[in-house]
């Protein structure tokens, strides 16, 4: 959730920018964002030779059972 808020508020131009903002390694960040992209929460927009993360879902529900 913190990562989504960070993307929405700061609108980083690249994954490298987001890695610097979040303090996470780029490789770890990419795995997390690709998972979020599969669920339609974020979109990874390719621009020239970089990738820009964009928040697609402003609200969502998570359901799970034990």
Mean pLDDT: 93
How many separate helices? 3
Helix share bin: 40-55%
User: What's the count of strands?
Assistant: 2
CATH class call of the domain at 2-47: Mainly Alpha
CATH-assigned fold name of the domain at 2-47: Arc Repressor Mutant, subunit A
Could you tell me the strand content as a percent range? 15-25%
Question: If strands are numbered along the chain, what order do they take across the biggest sheet?
Answer: 1-2
CATH-defined architecture of the domain at 2-47: Orthogonal Bundle
Which overall shape is indicated by the principal axes computed on the Cα atoms?
globular
Helix/strand-derived category reads alpha+beta
Unreliably modeled segments: none
Pfam families: HVO_A0114 (PF25212)
Protein name: IclR helix-turn-helix domain-containing protein
InterPro entries: WH-like_DNA-bd_sf (IPR036388), WH_DNA-bd_sf (IPR036390)
Question: Overview of this structure, please?
Answer:
This is IclR helix-turn-helix domain-containing protein. InterPro entries: WH-like_DNA-bd_sf (IPR036388), WH_DNA-bd_sf (IPR036390). The chain is of the alpha+beta class and 66 residues long. The protein has a domain at 2-47: Arc Repressor Mutant, subunit A (Orthogonal Bundle). It is 45% helix and 18% strand. It has 3 helices and 2 strands. The chain has helices at 2-10, 15-22, 26-38; strands at 42-47, 50-55. It has a two-stranded antiparallel sheet. A hairpin with a 2-residue loop joins strand 1 and strand 2. The model has no long low-confidence stretch (mean pLDDT 93).
């Amino acid at each position: 959730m913190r990562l989504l808020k960070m993307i929405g508020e700061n609108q980083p131009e690249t994954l490298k920018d987001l890695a610097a903002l979040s303090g996470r390694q780029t490789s770890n960040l990419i795995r997390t964002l690709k998972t979020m992209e599969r669920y339609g929460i974020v979109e990874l927009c390719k621009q020239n030779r970089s990738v820009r993360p964009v928040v697609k879902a402003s609200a969502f529900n998570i359901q799970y059972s034990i």
